[in-house]
Specification:
The structure is a single chain. Helix content is 78%, strand content 0%. The radius of gyration is 19 Å and the shape is elongated. It is built from eleven helices and no strands. The two termini are 28 Å apart. By secondary structure, it is an all-alpha fold. It is a multi-pass membrane protein. It is found in: Cell membrane; Membrane. Pfam families: ABC2_membrane.
Length: 263
C-alpha cells in the first residue's frame, strides 16, 4: 500500500471518528447553529427596519427590513463558520491534552490523518450549519436571485473559507495549553463580520474603522457572496477573497503541522 493510499485511508478513519463525536455530543453542534440564527433574528427584527432604511445597496429594494435581511445574511454565514471554529479548537486541544495523540503515535497510521480528520469533520459540520442558517433566512424573507452557477460559486467560496478557518482553528487548538483556553482563541474571528461590511456598509464608518473594515479579510468574502447571491457589484472582491482564503488556509496548515510535529 502506497503512502498516499495509507494517508487517505487513515484520514477517512479519523473523519469518521470526528463525525461520530459530533453525533455523540449534538449539544455543541446545536449551540454553534443557534448562535448565528439568534443574531440573525435579533438584527433583522430588532434593528432591521432602521438599518435597512439607511442602506444604499444590499440586494433588496425599498429599504426597511426586507433590504436589511438581504444585506446581512452573508455576514451571518461567515459568523456561523467562525463560531463553529471555536468547537474545532476545543476538540483539537482536548486530543492534545488527554493523551490520545500519544497513543496514535504508537500506531501505524499517517500522522497527518489526525489533523485531516479534525478539518474534514469540522467543515462538514460548518456546511450543515450554513444550510440551516440559509433555510431560516429564507423562511423570514431572504430572497436571493442567484442562478444555479452562482449558487455553486457561493457554495465553493464558503467551503474554501470554512477550510481556511478550520485549519486556523486546529492550529490554535493544538497550540493552546488547555481546552478552556482553546475556546477563547478563535473568538476574534466571530467579531470580524461586525468590523467589516457584515452588518452595515463600510462607508458609514469613521475613517480609521472604515480603513480596517475595507482591508480585513472578511469584507471581500462577504461582498463576493452578496454579488453572487443578490447581484450586487463584485469588482475585484472575488480575487481578493480567494487569495485571503488560500493564504490563511496554507499558513494555518503549515503552522498546525509544525506545532503538531513538535508536540
Amino acid at each position: 500500500m502506497s503512502a498516499l493510499t495509507l494517508a487517505a485511508r487513515d484520514s477517512a478513519t479519523m473523519t469518521r471518528r470526528q463525525l461520530k463525536r459530533l453525533i455523540r455530543y449534538p449539544s455543541m453542534t446545536v449551540q454553534l447553529v443557534i448562535t448565528p440564527v439568534i443574531i440573525l433574528l435579533l438584527f433583522v427584527y430588532v434593528f432591521g427596519g432602521t438599518l435597512g432604511n439607511g442602506l444604499t445597496h444590499g440586494g433588496g429594494g425599498g429599504g426597511g427590513r426586507h433590504a436589511y435581511i438581504n444585506y446581512v445574511v452573508p455576514g451571518i454565514l461567515l459568523m456561523a463558520v467562525a463560531t463553529a471554529a471555536t468547537g474545532t479548537a476545543v476538540m483539537a486541544a482536548t486530543d492534545m491534552t488527554e493523551g490520545i495523540i500519544a497513543r496514535f503515535r504508537t500506531m501505524r497510521i499517517s500522522r497527518a490523518s489526525v489533523l485531516t480528520g479534525h478539518v474534514i469533520g469540522a467543515v462538514i459540520q460548518q456546511l450543515l450549519g450554513i444550510a440551516v442558517v440559509i433555510a431560516v433566512a429564507v423562511a423570514i424573507g431572504f430572497r436571493p436571485n442567484a442562478t444555479p452557477l452562482e449558487w455553486a460559486a457561493a457554495a465553493g467560496l464558503l467551503a474554501l473559507f470554512a477550510l481556511a478557518v478550520t485549519w486556523l482553528a486546529v492550529a490554535l487548538g493544538i497550540k493552546s495549553p488547555t481546552p478552556e483556553s482553546a475556546s477563547n482563541a478563535p473568538m476574534p474571528l466571530v467579531f470580524l463580520p461586525f468590523l467589516g461590511s457584515g452588518f452595515v456598509p463600510t462607508d458609514s464608518m469613521p475613517t480609521l474603522l472604515r480603513w480596517f473594515a475595507q482591508y480585513q479579510p472578511f469584507t471581500p468574502i462577504m461582498e463576493t457572496l452578496r454579488g453572487l447571491l443578490l447581484g450586487t457589484h463584485i469588482g475585484n472582491n472575488a480575487a481578493i477573497a480567494t487569495a485571503w482564503c488560500i493564504t490563511i488556509g496554507a499558513a494555518s496548515y503549515l503552522w498546525a503541522k509544525h506545532t503538531y510535529n513538535k508536540a
